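Reader question, answered in our methods column.
A reader sent in the components of a multi-part assembly and asked whether the whole thing could be modeled at once rather than chain by chain. We filled in our standard form and ran it. Here is what they sent:
COMPLEX SIZE: four components
ENTRIES:
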Amino acid sequence: MNAGRTARERARAELTEEIKAAARRQLATVGAEALSLRAISRELGMVSSALYRYFASRDELLTALIIDAYDALGDAAEAAAGGDDVLEEWLAIYAAVRDWARAHPQEYALIYGSPISGYKAPQTTVQPAARVPILLLDLLQRAQAAGRLTPPADAPTPTGLLAEQTKVLVELAPQLSPTVLVRMMIVWTQLFGMLSFELFGQLVGSMDPADEFFTSAARQMAAFVGLS
Amino acid sequence: MNAGRTARERARAELTEEIKAAARRQLATVGAEALSLRAISRELGMVSSALYRYFASRDELLTALIIDAYDALGDAAEAAAGGDDVLEEWLAIYAAVRDWARAHPQEYALIYGSPISGYKAPQTTVQPAARVPILLLDLLQRAQAAGRLTPPADAPTPTGLLAEQTKVLVELAPQLSPTVLVRMMIVWTQLFGMLSFELFGQLVGSMDPADEFFTSAARQMAAFVGLS
DNA sequence: CATTGTCAAGAGCACTGCTCTCGAATCTGT
DNA sequence: ACAGATTCGAGAGCAGTGCTCTTGACAATG
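And here is the structure of the entire assembly that came back:
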């Protein structure tokens, strides 16, 4: 599979991956903010300045790690999708997202935690970031087609700016009503609020360990968005 | 109000506050991780080592800032509480929390963002952290006493570990049912997931600006927990 | 007045991201 | 196969960081 590439190109690609692997390893222990290029270079037995041949700056390395993290989460979620029952599938995606987050807390923090000081996320990160929400929107569309999506009658229809904003989401899921889309955003933010609280230690003393709380929330949020 | 204290004690207390103020000022621009003791000392016209007379370490300064942030948020929320209508009060607390968070994004990130690498929050932070949830639980109790709290009939009653965990919360709000308490935790995590998404730029492209989305979520979460 | 405790200052250690230069290795066009 | 262009790792160096230790000045206490 490396045919047609020069030895330099292969070496470069391999070393680039090794750098990212070492960075992820260090990330897991010291966190994103404390990620040190010099420590990475030490681990790889090279000199720190040599790293700059592969990543022009620390920020560029972080961007690569962020995209990889979004993709890893997207892969995990997509692997859990596609069962025969939409509700089971919903719960499976929830569980997959949580499992990935708990297995890679620092990578989770990298993408859903506080922004890294002085770091500005480039546009390249938005597409991989959208994979999981798109997955859930697709699930809801299939549920609706199967007659399994019935939002409560008392759910308010968005008006004004909110109605305007749902139009962006409608492009991703044309069949869903604005009501469901806004509820989906509420559910979406709930999921990551819950995960952040669990991973960042905010639930200690109340809902920790959060296994049962998490599945209960997953079920109740499914009902909230109209999934049955 | 400074009576009975020696000149040294007064000077020390004032300088301690000045250090925290400078730290907050720097926090607002560079973020918590990049907070530099030397930069603070430069701003105050003193030498960096002198700061260690007031805060034994960077972590100790951070702890002081974290407690101050929790208290500031608690003050803001409590100031918004206590209207005559419980639903209006609920919305007012939501708005106050959001306003404070948007006015102090870095302090928000300090307490609800990713944990700071190498920093372990001491036990002293949990009490100020509980002020806002206690405020909301109290509101729900008053609503229930006024017959304004009627959780939907299809809300599941927690079982197993989840039922066990609600007992901790029952001590804070003895009149509320486990069903409502779990829903309150879901709502609680939704609030901060939504805030984190807004402040950390995760809503850009969909629900940003989030004013209407936020108030819609506040209303729907009130209904979700049974408040009417 | 003398002692005791507190304070700011400064030097120093080990670390960081990043830049620059300098040879050596590798690739490319002839 | 060879010359020229490109890429690469190494090393020195800059400005910054948190933190420690020592020194000398000041204020509070007896």
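What stands out: The longest helix of chain A spans residues 7-30. Residues 1-56 of chain A form a domain with the Arc Repressor Mutant, subunit A fold (CATH 1.10.10).
Send us your own complexes using the same form.
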